[in-house]
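wait is this the right file?? whatever heres the structure
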């Protein structure tokens, strides 16, 4: 599934300046504890989180996560967006809660690597 298809499925907006064509995702991980994310990570994963701090982006960089979606109407800070741009990470934001966003991705076909809400 492309990142644009995923964004549509979860009613998400891609944060300006972090757009990227051709990014595919195979799995999704919903978590607010970055230590849980580090234990779960798979290839081509979309991280969904309600946590808004620079550690989310640092974890994404460390774990080669190419897309992060902030749930519950939260938005990244300017510092987070800048670090994401520098590292080629697509940022999204949705008003949906974490559990519902994960469910919508599953319904949309994110099944190869699975969709998991952890933590």
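ok assuming it is, sequence goes like this
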């Amino acid at each position: 599934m492309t990142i644009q298809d995923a964004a549509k499925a979860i009613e998400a907006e891609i944060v300006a300046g972090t757009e990227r064509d051709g990014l595919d995702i195979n799995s999704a991980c919903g978590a607010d504890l970055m230590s849980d994310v580090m234990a779960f990570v798979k290839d081509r994963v979309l991280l969904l989180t309600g946590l808004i701090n620079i550690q989310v982006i640092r974890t994404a960089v460390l774990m080669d996560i190419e897309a992060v979606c902030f749930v519950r109407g939260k938005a990244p800070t300017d510092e987070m967006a800048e670090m994401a741009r520098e590292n080629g990470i697509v940022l999204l934001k949705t008003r949906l809660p974490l559990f519902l966003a994960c469910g919508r991705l599953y319904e949309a076909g994110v099944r190869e690597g699975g969709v998991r809400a952890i933590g």
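The helical segments are 3-9, 34-40, 54-62, 78-86, 98-108. so i think its the right one actually
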